[in-house]
Amino acid sequence: MAVLTVGSTQQLHGEVNVPGDKSISHRAVMLAALARGRSKIMNFLMSDDCLRTAACIRNMGIDIELDHDTVWVAGKGLDGLSEPEDVLYAGNSGTTIRLLSGILAGQEFTSVITGDASLRRRPMGRITKPLQLMGARIIGRQSGSLAPLAIEGGSLRPITYRTPTASAQVKSAVLLAGLFCEGWTEVIEPARSRDHTELMLKAFGVPVEVEGLSVRVKGRHEFKACELAVPGDLSSAAFLMVAACMVPDARVVIRSVGLNPTRSGIIDILKSMGARIAVVNLRESMGEPVGDVIVESSRLSGTAISGELVVRAIDEIPVVAVAAAAAEGTTEIRDAEELKVKESNRIAAVAGELGKMGAAVHELPDGLRIVGGKPLMGAEVDSHHDHRIALALAVMGLAAKGKTRIMGAECLAVSYPAFPEALARLGGEGIEYIQGP
Ligand code: S3P
């Protein structure tokens, strides 16, 4: 087990590039595999989750070369995947298993996909149901609601599917399956989830129509390889943003961050809390907005977060809770039940671990209430094998008195393996990452 130690920090200064966006890196490898020809993906996130996707795609006969953060994928077209010889392993990655299941549902072969203990507890019925409606035969534990999933695909029919909760993984699974059937497949969401799949399909030249909360994709459209530059991950940048807000003397510039409006809720939330945060150098890369984010030490105050804002900041809620613990006043986060079925139960994990450090965090049935301004103390805390919990606790450690030891810190490798180095370079005190046996 790895342990990350973080000390109380007074200053954070400098410029940093965060690693490539996790959601976009997964999609880039998947779509490049279905394109015809050799695609080049730059600034790919070399983390456990995205490498799981690459390994699964390789196991279906696609040549993938990795060189630092550049990936070349030798796509063989829509019908170019071959039957994997063994079980596909998605590790901790919900995006890998859910999006790939959509692609597997479109194949004429049989495949089995599974993941680690956390992933095998996460709900899969939300994707197996629509994929079964499209004609795929899928078997999984508890009537197809838990992995491992065995998928016998092929001969799909297009559907119009109304998702019960806003989920980009569900939307994407259905749209990717839609690539393999004649006609238009449509997904209608209750609120707009991240739209990277739609944007990337368009970038590859696939016919996609977006109207309000509906997205439609035209199937059986062959597309060609292309060159993709993955923006920096706003979800990783969020940890540095909150760190800069909380440390008494800080100015941090985060370069080339993806600022897709379906993801940028964290910036709106921090602004509503009084953060000194500015976005400069706005530009576009493959339909995705990108910019540099400047954050300075801020006096934060409590806020209320619910509805669509939660969807636009779903992965950032743990670090928002950290900001709220250091803020004046109360913060209430509602409509966030989805947090219970992430890599860990993030409502329980945040309440339990932040509580150990002196924060007043109360669990609500659909969120959290945090009474800010309590003195924060370094403590021994647990990652719950969840990268975003480990990262949030590290940020909390900067603002706490004494040392914070985060047990189970190896999960940082899921999305931000270089986080301890980045924090130390900016001036984080007492940063030590010790890889256990
Ligand atoms: C993701 C979608 C979100 C998010 C996850 C990545 C994606 O999950 O929490 O970290 O890449 O599509 P849901 O689709 O379950 O909301």
What does this protein look like?
- This protein is of the alpha/beta class and about 425 residues long.
- The chain folds into 2 domains: about 220 residues, UDP-n-acetylglucosamine1-carboxyvinyl-transferase, Chain, CATH 3.65.10; about 210 residues, UDP-n-acetylglucosamine1-carboxyvinyl-transferase, Chain, CATH 3.65.10.
- Helices cover about 30% and strands about 30% of the residues.
- It contains 14 helices and 24 strands.
- Strands 22-23-1-24 form a 4-stranded mixed sheet, with helices on one face. A 4-stranded mixed sheet has the order 2-15-17-16.
- Strand 16 and strand 17 form a beta hairpin.
- The longest helix is centred in the first third of the chain and has 13 residues.
- The radius of gyration is 21 Å and the shape is globular.
- The termini are close together.
- The model has no long low-confidence stretch (mean pLDDT about 100).
- It binds shikimate-3-phosphate.
- Shikimate-3-phosphate binds next to helix 6.
Task: Label this structure with key terms.
globular, binds shikimate-3-phosphate, alpha/beta, 2 domains, 437 residues, four-stranded mixed sheet, UDP-n-acetylglucosamine1-carboxyvinyl-transferase, Chain, 14 helices
